[in-house]
Design a protein that fits this description.
By secondary structure, this protein is of the alpha/beta class. The protein contains six helices and 14 strands. α5 links the parallel β11 and β12.
Length: 232
């Protein structure tokens, strides 16, 4: 299983010959400024089979329509309300809610609770915010989505051990580094990929200090550069 990080909460999962794009946020992303984000997309994203959306905030869904046009067979997977929103725009979707695992060609996917909010830029209600628990023959992965620390995280490892967890660490709108360390305890997962930091001024972090705090607790915080990948 390969994970390629872009910025914010946007990354690509490659598993079982399927490409899953999470929370696409390229246009309007301050990271790119005068850089050409379209060149970035063309270079790194040769194929997208699925788009997974954790919630409806613009910095997680703003490029869904672009990618649905670029990759005509893409399937958007999200909660019921978000799926309906994009289905009305002619995009192929698969809606779910907090419930059972659902089998896809890439593995089994479960939509799980997130302590956050969810609304589209036009004011449309975006349903319950969430994350994804992915079980595959290559290992299990937890994508928390935007969330604060929550007791529900203790349920996640009951379903099976995790190879890695993807958690927000920027603070203010989500967990910060200290809370992400506690979350890793709840999840029984020592390997954390940090996301949702540095994109905006209010979620800037000290990367070296953040890694040190995780290391002092016997855990690993992975912070990838734009376009950098890891295998898990």
């Amino acid at each position: 299983m390969k994970i390629t990080f872009f910025t914010h909460n946007t990354f690509l999962l490659e598993v079982n010959e399927k490409n899953l794009l999470i929370d696409p946020f390229f246009s309007g992303n301050p990271f790119f400024n005068n850089r050409n984000y379209l060149k970035c997309i063309d270079f790194y994203l040769k194929k997208v089979d699925y788009i997974l959306l954790t919630h409806a905030h613009y910095d997680h869904v703003c490029d869904v329509e672009f990618f649905s046009q670029k990759f005509s067979n893409v399937l958007v997977i999200s909660n019921y309300e978000i799926s309906n929103y994009f289905e009305k725009r002619g995009i192929k979707t698969y809606g779910m809610n907090y419930g059972s695992f659902i089998s896809f060609p890439f593995g089994k996917l479960k939509y799980v609770f997130s302590a956050h909010s969810s609304v589209f830029s036009d004011g449309t209600y975006g349903g319950n915010p969430g994350g994804f628990l992915l079980h595959t023959n290559k290992g299990n992965l937890y994508i928390s989505g935007d969330t604060s620390l929550m007791n529900e995280m203790k349920i996640i490892p009951i379903f099976g051990s995790l190879k890695i967890s993807i958690l927000p660490i920027g603070g203010r709108y989500t967990m910060d580094v200290e809370e992400a360390i506690l979350a890793s305890d709840f999840l029984k997962c020592k390997r954390i990929l940090g996301v949702h930091y540095d994109t905006f001024e209010e979620i800037k972090i000290d990367k070296n200090e953040s890694k040190k705090k995780f290391s002092e607790k016997g855990k690993e915080l992975i912070l990838l550069k734009m376009g950098e990948s890891i295998y898990v």
